[in-house]
From TrEMBL:
Catalytic activity: D-ribose 5-phosphate + ATP = 5-phospho-alpha-D-ribose 1-diphosphate + AMP + H(+)
Keyword field: ATP-binding, Cytoplasm, Kinase, Magnesium, Metal-binding, Nucleotide biosynthesis, Nucleotide-binding, Transferase
Predominant place of localization: cytoplasm
Molecular function terms, GO-annotated: ATP binding; kinase activity; magnesium ion binding; ribose phosphate diphosphokinase activity
Gene coding for it: prs
Record-listed Mg(2+) binding positions: 142, 181
Record protein name field: Ribose-phosphate pyrophosphokinase
Co-factor requirement: Mg(2+)
Length: 324
């Protein structure tokens, strides 16, 4: 079906609605603009003690509903808001509820790596399912096995098509894609294959939460332009140390690409002072004013990708075609 006719069909479909939480309304509006449907009307307020009040302002009985809400900072607040939205839709007799979570908070706590710690990623999956979600759509999960924490259908998209097209346009000389740790090798290898360039790996030793020491560069980066590919940039400590390690090994320039710009604490300042040429991120998380003002940070939109996935899920067509 031609794209224009498909969008027109969706715009006229009364059994299809998209709603947004407060975490990233701008992304939700862009998704709706891409599909050609209006964003659903809601009312979100807070009591004096911070308690969330949410109300749907549209009839959703029997409707295929999509909620767009990344669980970014403040993570707990946005997560609870998402749970309340799901509960409201369930009690309003929505036909099917799909949570669209461009950034999945707590994804890094996906295993018991130390004694007496929680597997918070699994807990969040249980919360979403118990609240009433029938399906979930995620973008670049920290670990792909998180899909297995859910007992509902999960679609897992990658931001790589958006990133690959951008870096191909730059036509960087002697390019080498770099994974900043062993856990991200699969993601970086996929990116390197799409770009048709070699892969290098940085051996990272984590000494504490948000504290890392880069030890070794595995692969030849001398005289190369390096592109570090990761899923999350949090405090940017690992990123900056990786840049230094690559330059010490003879790299001429270093770029970075990440799906989720968490950018906590001193991250923006560290990026500004680093020897990075450019950091490319997506709009899965809204950037702070400080980050928006930094010329080194470039944003690529995933609204079209998410919009196409939402269309495919509603129309019950294949989502896997979006992986390329």
């Amino acid at each position: 079906m031609p794209e224009r006719k498909r969008h027109q069909k969706l715009a006229e479909d009364r059994r299809f609605k998209i709603f947004s939480g407060t975490a990233n309304r701008a992304l939700s509006e862009e998704i709706c603009k891409h599909i050609g449907v209006p964003l659903g009307e809601t009312k979100t307020q807070r009591f004096a003690d911070g308690e969330i009040y949410f109300q749907l302002l549209e009839n959703v009985r029997g409707v295929d509903v999509f909620i767009v809400q990344p669980t970014c900072n403040p993570v707990d607040q946005h997560l609870v808001e998402l749970l309340i939205m799901i509960d409201a839709l369930k009690r309003a007799s929505a036909g099917r509820i799909t949570t669209v979570v461009p950034y999945y908070g707590y994804a890094r706590q996906d295993r018991k790596d130390r004694p007496r710690v929680a597997i918070s990623s699994k807990l969040v999956a249980d919360l979403l399912t118990t609240a009433g979600a029938n399906r979930a759509l995620f973008m670049d999960l920290h670990a792909a096995q998180i899909q297995g924490f859910f007992n509902i259908p999960v679609d897992h998209l990658f931001a790589s098509p958006v990133m690959v097209s951008y870096f191909k346009e730059l036509n960087l000389p002697n390019l080498v894609v770099v994974s900043p740790d062993a856990g991200g090798v699969e993601r970086a290898r996929f990116f390197a294959t799409k770009m048709g360039v070699p892969l290098a790996i940085v051996d990272k030793r984590r000494t504490d939460i948000n504290v890392t020491e880069v030890m070794h560069v595995i692969g030849d980066v001398k005289g190369s332009t390096c592109l570090i590919i990761d899923d999350i940039i949090d405090t940017a400590g690992t990123l900056v140390k990786t840049v230094d390690a690559l330059l010490e090994k003879g790299a001429t320039k270093v770029y970075a690409g990440a799906s989720h710009a968490v950018l906590s604490g001193p991250a923006v300042e560290r990026i500004a002072k680093s020897r990075l040429v450019e950091v490319v991120v997506t709009d899965s998380i809204p950037l702070s004013e400080e980050a928006q003002a930094l010329p080194k940070i470039k944003v690529r939109s995933i609204a079209g990708l998410l919009g196409a996935a939402i269309e495919s899920i509603h129309m019950e067509t294949s989502v896997s075609t979006l992986f390329s």
